[in-house]
Fold these 3 entries.
Entry 1:
Amino acid sequence: MLNALTGALIRSWDTTNSLILLPQYCVFLATRDGSTGAIVENERGVWIEDAQGEQMLKGTGRHVRLPDFAGHRYGSILRALHHEILINVTLSGPVPNLYVYSKPWYRDGAMIAMCLKQTGNLDLIRDWILGLREPYDRNNAGETEADNLGQALFLISCVSGKSHPLVSRVLEETRRFQVRDPSEGLYIKRLKLTLGLMSVRIPDGGCSGFACASHPSPALVPRSQPISRRQREPLPQ
């Protein structure tokens, strides 16, 4: 058993077989001396159960919520996916894959926050969100990506509000992406910013010319342009 971040050895067994039950957050072990053991995670921590007794792994005692999604058609899959999200909440923040990414992305962070909000685990990333000070994550070759602004606002809304120091900076940055003449046939792509503004309860009237890398808002598509079925579909609840 190794530390995923450092590779340091935590515990070892001379096993003949192991069984991973991902939806149950459990690994069963069979050893050469005929004994059995298990590595189990519950809402109180990660536990090792073997011939030496039951012991909680150091550093895993922070409480998390592990819903069983009882009654859901895909409950076992949701438990496994939720576990994957929790594993990738690192000391530096939420990442898509802790083995590949050392720094959080606002895009993935916002998606993870949506999930953690639903499962009651926002406290796991609260400090990271409260510490955000830049409107862009600059993870894509240093680019100041427009959709970062809405993502940042949404993240802030999960644990704070308009008083967060980054909000004013994000609003100032929206001016860089305003389109002077929407009548020229340009799509005004601002869905992510609008979601972020709504999340922190800021009217979006001042940003109606914002162009971001998202789907266009049907209300802002010039009438000469046909509205596709995808643009007519309501946002998922």
Entry 2:
Amino acid sequence: MHTKNSVQKSPIPSSLKVDNLKHISDHGLNVQFTEQKLKSLIDYLRTKEGTTALSAGKSTLEITKLGCIVMTRLHLATSGSGYWHESIHYQDSHANLFYKVKRQDGTKEQDAFDTLRGVIFGEHTTSDCYRKAQTLPAVWFPKCGADSDKLRDWLRDFAWTLTGVSGLRAQASKQAMKQIQSTVSSAKNGIDYQQGVLVQLRTEDSYFFRISHERARGICASSLKNAQDKADHISADKTLLAAEISPDTLFDISTKYGAVKMGAIWQEGGYTYERGFPAKSAVYSHTLRGANYTATVGEDGETVLLSSGINCEFKRSEIVAWLKGNSPAPKTRYGVVEKVECATNAGEAANYLKCGCHYVDAARIDSELAQLLKPSHVVSLSSGKPKVLIGEDGFSARLAEAISEREVSIVEMRTNTLRQFSEKKHSLTEREANLPQLLIVQAGRIENAKAELAKAEKALADSPALLGAGFESNELTARAFINSQQVNFSL
């Protein structure tokens, strides 16, 4: 008889979120959660072979584990009936080898997933509307010449799927090798770039800076002349508009400021058009956007935790240093972190951190980040305007408004030109004064780049022992078997 103390608690939490299921579906059992209950769940799933079902509301995630292979099948409540998000993951954390085939990435990937599923897990029921039993997908059984051509084309990329687990490991090795080779190539390019900068610094003498100042003055003068020419054209148009002109001449002038031909109407002899300004909807000056997640900081004061339950790959101190201008933006597997200026759904200014498809409201973390992410932009809502045609009341006012907006843009153009010239002049003066120190700093950067290259080359030299070869031999094995079947399978 079980007592209260002898009943074991299920390691599967009863209150999972849909975001939790999505993260597991996307990353397999390599996902890194922060909440202890979710960590315990992943640890439990890593030790459990077979199929486990998780649910969040009416959404369901099936996880099937076989050694290093993890198949995830996610059905969202918002998806259509019978639609599953399916992936097969190869995950060997000891060798640091990871690879994923996602069925929804394309038609070829769909056949690759179905092939791997059949080779590794055996016969299964398809998730489409036919619900039929299959081991391999239809691409393996060509019925005509076109099908055979399709199969041969598909085999160029996915012949390895016939070797199942071995093929997945080979692809993971190939991917890891490419990443290491890319690091070496990037390090070499980094050295070339830094050496190029050093060569450029050594050519910068008094003559170079004098020519650079003259070029900056020339660019400024050209931009100011361009602005003046535009102002002169507007002045000439206003002079014409003050006189008696024909509707055709009025329309020709108006097209410079947004008037168009609209609403083609067929009449005997051809089409006629309405002429005037089209209707304009009311729009916000910035994109309306809501944050996907809110963020908090862990007990260590550094780890950034998302509301979905995972850790960010950047630390709080890295974000603060970047926002203060003391370091570059942090890099993650999803790309470089960006600050996005936008508007909330209520039309208020907001700054979010963008990382991949994640928009994070990091201003709520603490007062320092709230100050660093305090919006400096102003969100405005332009008023909508109805369509107005030549000859109608309001056309002259609409044209005058468009001309006024163009005049304002010219003033802004002049202001920006003078500001950019001032900044360039200051930059050149400061660079000339600090040139000896810049040469020393650049030499140090080259040495750091050489150290990074040495580190990358060592990783490349060590990689065969760590990863092993295999992707070429696996592909050859698969092709040999395929050729022996003469593209006429009966599996």
Entry 3:
Amino acid sequence: MLPYGIKVEGLQMQVNRVLIKFLVLIFLVVMTCGRTRADDEKEMILNVTAKKLLIQTKNSISSTQITKDEIAKVPQGESVKLPKLLSITVPGVVPGPFGQSFIRGNHANIQYQVDGVQLPDSPSNTFGEAFTPRNIDHMEVITGGVAAEYGERLAAVVNITTKSGKETPNGEAEIDYGSYNTSSPFALYSGSNNEGNLHYFISAGAFRTDRGLDTPQPTNESNENQGGTDAVHDRAWGHNQFAKIDWIADNSNKYSFVAFNSFNFFQIPNLPSSFSPSDSFFTKTDQYGNNPINWAPSTTDDTQSETNSYFQIVWRHSFNERTFLQLAPYYKYAYIGVKNDQSNDLSEAIGPVQIPGSVASSIYRKSPHQ
């Protein structure tokens, strides 16, 4: 046996394949030069060792990556609502009026994940309205080729990675003001301990506006497709809080705590008092053959309120670079309440277009998950 040998080791066979071929070629050239007939009869050993490549599960999916820097560049910046952010950055997304997102024609069939933990459904499926992009470091939106690990969510998967505290404690505060008396104050503070193994990030914000939802008022009765400018009974307000703590106990164990809470209140907009039940707007079908809308007094007081509270604790133990164990207990509480003004709502039942058997009721739904 020749007193020569070659051993090649690599973490990724695919990355080192060219290098391996080059080394083998050099080795064979060196061994060939000066060989005798007796050397040709001896055995030569070549050992090549490398780890197997993991299956790249993301190669077959269609996804969009959105970073905090890209969020800051969109109209309204980080104060934009999450459904609107998705609609202007991800192809095939249409926002709904109450914080829903409709992707590829699906009716809000979306799975949300926060730091790798799947969120349970809300009664109104309005998580997008509850979570502010100000707390997002980056996120991935999968809209095609969704892997089996995500279950039955066929529309999209929105995987959000939240911000963590910086090494140096810092904070910021701001307030935005716009048309319809819209204001939105916001503040955050983040940092870490002296050892650098504990990071924290907290934020809080609020908003109020005189035009929370799109008004149903048309420009005039002959131009029903163009919206008007009046916002009657259309105020909205709310607030949100967020907190995250990351603790690296040692090289193998990491703990993470995430909690957020939000409350939103909306007045359901009415038509101005200049409209009367006898207007053609309420008595004739439109150009597409749809039935006329029902008339209700401009003083009708219908409202909707939503509450979302969530917290999770994640423990991750790493055995090696490829194997880990993760436990993530969580609790989520979601509430939606629709309060109707029964006397005014039922007044439309006796208008020019009779509606026999009309019913007006308030609806309250809550959904705790753990």
